[in-house]
Design brief:
alpha+beta; four-stranded mixed beta sheet; 8 helices; globular
Length: 227
């Protein structure tokens, strides 16, 4: 039992840290967000709500500059002020913003926050176990190798979540009468909007799939659905 002690502690640490970071994020969002009041986006949100047979989709603006969307662990949906300002400046269309909201709804509906807590705890346990094994044969660098391997695993799981949320968003946008064209057009301009330089980064270490991969998956789904 004692030899499994470090692994059990790693699992406990993962659970505690995930809950702590979720609590801190919720407090931060409470402090720095307001409900979205844009009339055009509200109409599109209502179209999606009707498609889901729910009364309303509530979206908040998170008062930070980076261009991003966020599904909080408590189920709330956010777009950042930076993203909203790009929309107000005409760099992003209302339908493209709706595709972001649909994507974040996908994370909530598919339980990705809950899954990430399990993944994070499991990765801590795996990291600890691998470090114990590798250090027997490679003293001094075993921990480094364990960290690298678990980082690659985390990135792969995160990319899987993003593809799933994209597919959910595509289905919802089609059902709501918005279609997937805005989703595709947003991905084509995303790197410019965010200032990301992912093109030079190997896909296997990114936490999000590259835009061309996401567009290809969306187009494949659309072709399959139209049959």
């Amino acid at each position: 039992m004692l030899k499994f002690g470090p692994i059990l502690l790693a699992i406990l640490y993962g659970v505690v840290m995930f809950r702590w970071s979720s609590w801190r994020l919720a407090k931060e969002l409470d402090r720095k967000s307001t409900e979205l009041a844009d009339p055009v986006l509200r109409v599109l949100c209502q179209q999606m709500a009707d498609a889901l047979d729910i009364p309303k989709i509530k979206v908040h603006i998170y008062e930070i500059e980076p261009v991003n969307g966020l599904a909080a662990p408590d189920g709330r949906i956010f777009i950042t002020r930076g993203f909203f300002e790009r929309y107000k400046a005409g760099k992003v269309s209302s339908e493209e913003m709706a595709s972001v909201i649909a994507h974040e709804l996908g994370h909530v509906a598919l339980g990705h926050s809950r899954r990430r807590m399990i993944d994070f705890s499991g990765q801590n346990a795996l990291r600890t176990a691998m470090a114990m094994v590798f250090n027997r044969f490679l003293p001094g660098i075993g921990v480094w190798i364990a960290n690298l391997l678990t980082t690659l695993l985390a990135a792969r799981l995160s990319r899987k979540d993003e593809f799933e949320a994209d597919a959910y968003a595509s289905a919802l946008l089609v059902k709501a009468g918005i279609g997937v064209a805005p989703q595709i057009s947003l991905f084509r301009k995303l790197e410019t909007l965010t200032g990301a330089r992912g093109a030079a980064t190997p896909a296997w270490i990114l936490s999000h799939p590259k835009s061309e991969q996401r567009i290809a998956a969306i187009e494949a789904n659309r072709a399959k659905w139209l049959g």
